[in-house]
Design goal:
85 residues, alpha+beta, 3-stranded antiparallel beta sheet, 3 strands
């Protein structure tokens, strides 16, 4: 993750931590370069059903590795920044 992307992710997660101060898992996400479905559910506070609907409609870009969906910060960050505004 390049420095500019890292700073944008850090800022977006800071906004989330202000909204959910008791969520201890959010700071740990900053160390990850690839996100799992569970991470996306935590970040956006959505259900599995909503996540897979977003994937199916193409709203959320993902990579499929065997039976796992993985996500990159570059793809998730625009949605996260929009959510925080």
């Amino acid at each position: 993750m390049d420095l500019q992307l890292y700073e944008r992710v850090k800022l977006a997660l800071a906004f989330l931590m202000l909204a959910r101060p008791n969520d201890k898992a959010l700071p740990l996400l900053l160390k990850k370069t690839i996100l799992t479905s569970a991470d996306i559910l935590l970040i956006f506070g959505i259900s599995y059903k909503t996540l897979y609907r977003w994937i199916k409609t193409g709203k959320l870009p993902e990579c499929r590795v065997t039976t796992w969906y993985i996500f990159h910060w570059e793809d998730i960050l625009p949605f996260l920044e929009k959510k925080n505004t």
